[in-house]
Design brief:
The complex is a heterodimer. Chain A is built from no helices and 11 strands. Chain A has strands at residues 3-7, 11-12, 18-25, 34-39, 45-51, 58-60, 68-73, 78-83, 92-99, 106-109, 113-117. In chain A, the strands form 2 sheets. In chain A, strands 2, 4, 5, 6, 9, 10 and 11 form a 7-stranded mixed beta sheet that branches. Chain A has a 4-stranded antiparallel beta sheet with strand order 1-3-8-7, with no helix packed on it. In chain A, a hairpin with a 5-residue loop joins strand 4 (34-39) and strand 5. Chain A starts with a strand and ends with a strand. Chain B has no helices and 11 strands. In chain B, strands 2, 4, 5, 6, 9, 10 and 11 form a 7-stranded mixed beta sheet that branches. Chain B starts with a strand and ends with a strand. Classes of the chains: A mainly beta, B mainly beta. At the A-B interface, strand 5 and strand 10 of A face strand 4, strand 5 and strand 10 of B.
């Protein structure tokens, strides 16, 4: 059974940093592209960043470029999102999601972890 | 970036109804469109990919179609479990983008 479990969400002050993790199990992690998708309270879905299976290709939304860094450790089946210079508008539930058969849509999602940026 | 315009934002319907949700892409996305269902407090669930391909395990009352840059999700014979929010997503190119969402409510 495919499982994605996010952790690391917390309350952080504006300008602060946070590192999210997503532990994967039930599939060959290194064979799949992975993404982070976020959802602000009461709002829609926003794609944040994507990473190929071998980390050769990395993409970011303009809203986080230069502040967030996506990475993965295939030996530990874990995806990461390092978030720096956090702003109030980064407040959201952050989901990790597995790339589906067409790589860039998402066939499995984690349960999400809440990041709150506030003073 | 490709923009996705989804309508309506809210839809009121009854059990047994046939409902349709539309997404219009701002450019050609070559059928690279997915539909997701999301219930409150839960992660999204993939329903359809490549505009009309039903994800494994998804009931056949869900279907997807396309006409040019306009994409439609249709739910026939609406069931109580279908009252939720629905999102389209284009994946032709990065930045990946979602529609604004449609909430299907009980009339």
């Amino acid at each position: 059974e495919v499982q994605l479990v996010e952790s690391g969400g917390d309350l952080v002050q504006p300008g602060g940093s946070l590192r999210l993790s997503c532990a994967a199990s039930g599939f060959t992690f290194s064979s799949y592209a992975m993404s982070w998708v976020r959802q602000a309270p009461g709002k829609g879905l926003e794609w944040v960043s994507a990473l190929s299976g071998s980390s050769d290709y990395i993409y970011y939304a303009d809203s986080v470029k230069g502040r967030f860094t996506i990475s993965r450790d295939n030996s530990k089946n874990t995806l990461f999102l390092q978030m720096n210079s956090l702003k109030s508008e980064d407040t959201a539930v952050y989901y990790c999601a597995r790339g589906g058969i067409d790589y860039k849509h998402f066939d499995y999602w984690g349960q999400g972890t809440l990041v709150t940026v506030s003073s | 970036d490709i923009q996705m315009t989804q309508s309506p934002s809210t839809l009121s319907a009854s059990v047994g109804d046939r409902v349709s949700i539309t997404c219009r892409a701002s450019g050609n996305i070559y059928s690279r469109l997915a539909w997701y269902q999301q219930k409150p407090g839960k992660a999204p669930k993939l329903l359809i990919y490549r505009a009309s391909n039903l994800e494994s395990g998804v009931p056949s009352r869900f279907s997807g179609s396309e006409s040019g840059t306009e994409f439609t999700l249709t739910i026939s014979n609406l069931q109580p479990d279908d009252f939720a929010s629905y999102y389209c997503q284009q994946y032709d190119s990065y930045a990946l983008t979602f529609g604004g969402g449609t909430k299907v409510e009980i009339k």
